[in-house]
Amino acid sequence: MILTVTLNTALDLTYRVPALVPHASHRVEEVTERPGGKGLNVARVLAALGHEAVVTGFAGGPSGEVLRGLLAGLAPVDALVPVAGATRRTIAVVDAATGDTTQFNEPGPLVSPAEWEAFLRAYGGLLDGADAVALCGSLPPGLPVGAYAQLVRQARTAKVPVLLDTSGEALRRGIAARPDLAKPNADELAQLTGSREPLRAARDARRRGARTVVASLGAEGLLAASPDGLWQAAPPAAVRGNPTGAGDSAVAGLLSGLVEGLDWPGRLTRAVALSAATVLAPTAGEFDAEAYTKMLGSVRVTEHAH
């Protein structure tokens, strides 16, 4: 079983309009609702790959009830912990004329110390049956900035491989707790290390505590710095579409490859192919299965000298 943690889950709403015009009224052509948050996206991709996936984090209020209802129709197992506050909503407005998306993200619910303690107890129990765990996304109000660092240490104590995918101070403190894998994007890595040169920044992030760093480089694919070597994996060509959730699919590829015992080139190939196939899918948490299969044979993996 692979466990994903999303402390700041979201109910994702997508509005599609013919054209997005500032200061104007709009007639919405299509509305979709999805269970959202990075770890939930990861779990849905893992389930599509045939892995047992369990999602935990917080859910509360009417929006949390809707999220859990939507999740009930999907493959990941719901182990979300209830909170008094309402789960946030994210609203994406898709401009059909240009294909561009404008995003509005609400703040998460205020989590009390008692609710955090309840989560820690539930998390400890879930780790007992986990082959790997992913800690994903932002922190809701009320949680300590070192929350992910605490969860990393708990996973390490339980001897469960742990992947960290967050940003800012939560990433800095989480990496210091020595996760097995950190997966920042280029901007997050630069903010952490002060370097815009990906290879130098990835090595710096490893010195800060992460055993392995896999950096998302957008259209250039993934760069991995591990104790076993340095690799860059790139798709055969740039892919146009909706990039939302592409990084989450990469996490699913890395974790599934880990539990299946793939080597690093194999994990990176899967992660890049999944990420690119997600850009071609309409919503986060999904990927174009046909495109994924085709890309597996054409991802370019290059090994760098140490």
Question: How would you explain this protein's 3D organization?
Answer:
With 306 residues, the chain is of the alpha/beta class. The chain is 37% helix and 25% strand. It has helices at residues 38-48, 61-71, 113-127, 147-157, 168-176, 186-193, 198-207, 246-260, 264-279, 289-296; strands spanning 2-6, 10-17, 30-36, 53-59, 77-78, 81-82, 88-95, 101-105, 132-136, 162-165, 181-182, 212-216, 222-226, 229-234, 300-304. The strands form two sheets. Strands 1, 4, 5, 6, 9, 10, 11, 12, 13, 14 and 15 form an eleven-stranded mixed β-sheet that branches. Strand 13 (222-226) and strand 14 (229-234) form a beta hairpin. Helix 9 packs antiparallel against helix 10. The protein starts with a strand and ends with a strand. The mean pLDDT is 91.
Put the structure in a nutshell:
With 306 residues, the protein is an alpha/beta fold. It is built from 10 helices and 15 strands.
Key features of this structure:
306 residues; alpha/beta; 15 strands; globular
Ordered list of secondary-structure elements with their pairings:
Elements: E1 2-6, E2 10-17, E3 30-36, H1 38-48, E4 53-59, H2 61-71, E5 77-78, E6 81-82, E7 88-95, E8 101-105, H3 113-127, E9 132-136, H4 147-157, E10 162-165, H5 168-176, E11 181-182, H6 186-193, H7 198-207, E12 212-216, E13 222-226, E14 229-234, H8 246-260, H9 264-279, H10 289-296, E15 300-304
Parallel strand pairs: 1-4, 1-9, 2-7, 4-5, 4-6, 9-10, 10-11, 11-12
Antiparallel strand pairs: 2-3, 7-8, 12-13, 13-14, 14-15
Largest sheet: 11 strands, mixed
Estimated structural class: alpha/beta
Low-pLDDT residue intervals, each spanning 5 or more residues: none
Q: Tell me, what's the shape?
A: globular
Number of helices: 10
How many E-type strands?
Answer: 15
Order of helices and strands: EEEHEHEEEEHEHEHEHHEEEHHHE
Compute the CA-based radius of gyration: 19 Å
Percentage of residues in strands: 15-25%
Average per-residue pLDDT, rounded, comes to 91
- What is the helix content? 25-40%
Gap between N and C termini: 34 Å
